[in-house]
Every structure is written in structure tokens, then in C-alpha cells.
């Protein structure tokens, strides 16, 4: 809970602030460690955000290292609560340590105290606790999360350049349309000479932007939230959106490879830690927000439950590539399904990274070409009549 408090320091000065704590006693102890004496405090409602992937990576690495060094679990969590990054995550770790001291297992404490945490994360940790291999489980889990973070960073980098370049293009075009083009039109209008078609088109576009720019700005701001609400409340629209994401010309293939990578990594992790295959397949379903993929995973779970092999169950769905099915057949035949799943994840992780790099390589010259065409059109439409005037004056 988040508390707003007033306290007094060693110089008898009143200090105000807010801090997370499990209760008033915990808040008072926390302030005393900072050299403050609590005067009064009141709870404040807050919306707890789920821990980030970066925080979970640090958690797995920190706790795994301390457990391997022989440090008890509670002390490892308490050390992370004191030295971890981020005030909110340190407060969560303090609550987790309190729950562990009360006798809760780590998986239950994480599920209770870290609001919104991925259920697969706690499920893997629960399997590590039951098998007695918690340090090894945390190490595998941290490795999986780091690989996911690498792919996510590549995706963010792919989107960053178009966003920056698009903003520059729109800013440049707006400056030319609102300031330069009207002045040139005034000058050309005074000459009374006929204008080329592309110049008239430029002036008509400038008039449209000048007259309706508030609506043109408001339209996306209104349509996007409306579309989001419609998708949120309409399962049919949501499925249509998810299906469209899988079929996009350039990014659809990358999106499918990323989905295969994540599912193979998680399934390998769950299977390796001793979770039965059916339970592992059931745990995969909440990890995807794509309804098409979620329905496919549910059908795969039912097929395996009814006696089908894992490879045959995946082969029924076209969103999964044939190579995935063949590798699963080999893994089931040789009894090395966990290693096969890891190999699948590494294969498609590499393909997704290569595809992201290729798309980014294509985007940069494409945006440069768009910028050149836009500026070239504006310069041609404005300078050609001016050159015509200069030519006539020379005669």
C-alpha cells in the first residue's frame, strides 16, 4: 500500500513524502532506517503496475546468484529489497520477504505481492520449488527473459526510426505548406500567368490543410480510441485485428516468428522444470494476447489431451511453419523434446532478428525516398513557375 506521510528528521525538520509499505509498522521501520521519525501517515489508493521484464531479469539473476552462494532465500529477497533498482520493486520485494517469513512459498508470495505478474513466471518458479532446483530454474528463467528482452529491443529499434523520420517529414511539410507555399502563391498570383497542374494541386492541398487542419488533427485522435474500444468490446473485430496482424506483408512473418520463439522458449522451460506437457500447454494460453493464436493453443491442448502427438496437433494450424512440425516430430521420436524446443526457439529467434534487421534496412531508404519525393514535388511546383517568369522577363 502507498502511504502519504509526515516525519521529522534529526534536525527537527518536518519532512513530507510518500512510500510503499505493508502497514504502518513497516512504514515506521522503513523511515527509521532513513533517519526519520514518523508523525502521521494515511494510505493512498494506487494502481499497481506489473513488474517490468527488466525487473524480473534482475530478480532472477540476483536471487539465483545468492542461492548458489549458499545465502538463504529470505535473506536473498531482503538484500534485493535493500539494493534493488526502483522504489516500487524494492517495496514489492519487502512484501515478498515478509510473506516468505510467514511461511508462504516464493511462487505464492510473487503471485500475491507482485500484482499483474505473468502466471507462467510463477508457474515455472513453483515447479522449481517442487523439484528442489530453484537456482537452476531461476537461471533458465532469467536466460529466457533476457532473450525476449533482446527481441523486444530490436522491435522497438525498428519502430523508432520510422517514428522519428515521420515526425520530421510531417514537421517539414507543415512548415512548407503553412508558411512558404502561401507566400509563393501570393507572388505568383500577382503575375497573372497560368499555373501548371501540379502547382495548382499544391495550392489546393495547402488550402485544405489551412482550412481543415484542426479536423485533420482531431480525426486520428478520435478514431483511434474509438477503434480501440470497438475492438475491446467486439470479439469479432478483435479476431479480425489479430488475424490481420498475422498476415501483414512485411511484419506478419516477423510477428509469427516472434510468437513461435516465445512459445517454444516457454514450453521448453516449463517442460524442463518438470511440468507435465498438458499443464505446460494450458499455461501457454494466457501468455498471448492474439486471439487466433490463443484459439490454436487451446485446440492443440485438446488434441494432445485426446491422444494426438504434439507435432500432429501443431500441424493442424497454418500459423505454425512446417519446419516447426518436423522438428517436433524428431524431438518426440528421440525423446529429447526439451532440447528440440530450445533449438526451435533459437532458430526462429535468429530468423526474427535477421528479418527485423532487413526490414529496418528497407525502411531507411524508403523513408528517405518519400522525403525526397515530397520536397521535390513542393520545390518543382513552386520553382517551375518562378523560372517561367524569369525566362519571360529575359525575353
What report would you give on this structure?
The protein has a 3-stranded antiparallel sheet with strand order 2-1-3. A hairpin with a 5-residue loop joins strand 1 and strand 2 (14-20). It has helices at 24-33, 53-68, 73-83, 87-101, 106-113, 119-131, 134-191, 197-233, 235-247, 251-272, 277-284, 291-305, 310-315, 322-334, 337-394, and strands spanning 2-8, 14-20, 37-44. With 395 residues, it is mainly alpha-helical. The protein is flat. The chain folds into 3 domains: 2-43; 53-146, Type II secretion system (T2SS), domain F (Receptor-associated Protein, Up-down Bundle), CATH 1.20.81.30; 161-394, Type II secretion system (T2SS), domain F (Receptor-associated Protein).
* Strand fraction: 5-15%
Coarse shape: flat
From the 3D coordinates, which CATH architecture of the largest domain would you assign? Up-down Bundle
Mean pLDDT: 80
Number of helices: 15
What is the CATH topology descriptor of the largest domain? Receptor-associated Protein
The sequence of SSEs as H and E is: EEHEHHHHHHHHHHHHHH
Tell me, what is the CATH class of the largest domain?
A: Mainly Alpha
Largest sheet: 3 strands, antiparallel
- Number of beta-strand segments: 3
Major sheet strand order: 2-1-3
How many domains in all? 3
The gyration radius over C-alpha positions equals 30 Å
Structural class: mainly alpha
Fraction in helix: over 70%
Oligomer: single chain
Low-confidence stretches: none
Cα distance spanning the termini: 84 Å
CATH superfamily of the largest domain: Type II secretion system (T2SS), domain F
